[in-house]
Amino acid sequence: MPDRPNTRTSNPWVLLLRGINVGGHGKLPMAELKALLLRLGASNVTTYIQSGNAVFTGALDPNAFARDLAEAIDRNHGFRPNIQLFIAESFREIVAAYPFPEAHAEPKTGHVWFCAQAPAPDTARLDALAAPTERYRIAPRALYLHAPDGIGRSKLAERAEALLGVPTTARNLNTCTKLVALLDDLAAG
């Protein structure tokens, strides 16, 4: 569920789409995503890599915006992605709360699952799936994972969304850090 800020003023936002341009599925060029966002009332749109990340400003109702974006993507591209929309402060707080500092030295080993709402985790199964080298922590809007042996081998990562009980989308610390930097640029701009 998107954040609910004051919609009367223009706010900075972070958009995360799940399943975009992965394995030949969910094809959505970032230029087209940017055009859709602008048509829906976003301003100062910047996308980052091809996996459905954007920062922008706008005075918008986040639930209506997410619904309209999902409908536009479905109409134009034939699929409806999971859309996570965060007011900048909330996104920054989630990223800043990443609890495993050693992952910052190798940001591809650190991951954040952004949750659509508060998770209802099956911690016993998460514990059972975690490799001996992995550590995780659950927060009100996120699952944090440090997987030093790689995310591709992680059974916990593979089952995280199902075991959290809510829709999620994951990003590594490289992407999270870059999106925070884009928010900084937006604020300075």
Rounded mean pLDDT is: 92
What is the C-alpha radius of gyration, as a whole number of Å? 16 Å
Beta strands, count: 8
**What is the domain tally?**
2
Q: Judging from the principal axes of the Cα atoms, what is the shape?
A: globular
CATH H level of the largest domain: which superfamily? SP0830-like domains
The percent of residues in helical segments reads 25-40%
Share of residues in strands:
15-25%
Sketch the major β-sheet. 4 strands, antiparallel
- Straight-line distance between termini: 28 Å
Instruction: Label the structural class.
Output: alpha+beta
SS summary, helix count: 6
List SSEs in N-to-C order: EHEEHEHEHEEHEH
Unreliable parts: none
CATH class of the largest domain: Alpha Beta
Q: Quote the CATH topology of the largest domain.
A: Alpha-Beta Plaits
CATH hierarchy: architecture of the largest domain: 2-Layer Sandwich
Largest sheet: spatial strand order: 2-3-1-4
